[in-house]
Amino acid sequence: MIVPFQMVMYTLAYITNTLKLNTPWGLWIIYLGFGAGLAVFIFTGVIKGIPQELEESAMIDGASVPRIFFQIIVPIMRPAIISVSILQAMWIWNDFLLPFLTLDLNKYKTISIAVQYLKGGYGSVEMGAMMGCLVMAIVPIIIFYLICQKYIIKGVMSGAVKG
Predict the structure, then answer these.
(1) Cα Dmax for the chain
(2) What angle do the packed helices 74-94 and 127-160 form, to 10 degrees?
(3) For the segment 18-76, what is each residue's pLDDT rounded down to a tens digit?
(4) Dist CA 68 CA 64 (whole Å)
(5) How many other β-carbons are positioned within 10 Å of the β-carbon of residue 159?
(6) Residue 125 φ/ψ, nearest 5 degrees
């Protein structure tokens, strides 16, 4: 998490071309690798804050380990899961540099790269196509955020009062 992306981008581009990961599926693998650090950091903090007595009482009641995880731990972690999902979705959706470095641009383009290709030579821009493409790029992530917003607020409110 402390190494800046600019230090690894040349090596990453070289390795993705060598291993033939310059496809959308290879890009997903790279995003999983870069996004795992933040997710582990947040989930570790949430798990450490869950009282062990909840798990112990569920075990005494006869619940199995998967049942404890999916019916007790995951509902408590839901705000953190939604927060990580929103952060990762916004990062992946708006990312320009990583797909530009790793994808085979003759075959694949993300929305961010497609918007850049609407810019013509000598600074000319087709404003109609550019604005239409930008609206199409913004609307899905705004809808995703609005759907998940209530979970973030619920998580912030539940963590605000200690009792």
Answers:
(1) 72
(2) 160
(3) 999 889 999 999 999 888 888 898 889 888 888 999 999 999 999 999 999 999 999 98
(4) 6
(5) 12
(6) -135, 130
| Backbone φ, ψ for residue 119 (5° rounding) | -80, 125
Q: Which residue has the tokens 């995003």?
A: 31
Helix (H) / strand (E) element for 14: namely helix 5-18
**How far, in Å, are 111, 134, 135, 146 from residue 138 at the CA level?**
10, 6, 5, 12
Amino acid, res. 54 = L
**CA atoms within 13 Å, Cβ hemisphere of 120:** 7
C-alpha separations of 44 from 22, 47, 62, 84 in Å: 32, 5, 26, 12
Residue type, 154: K
C-alpha span between 64 and 48 (Å, rounded): 20
* Residue among 85, 97, 79 nearest 141 (CA): 85
Distances (CA, A) of 40 to 44, 46, 81: 6, 10, 11
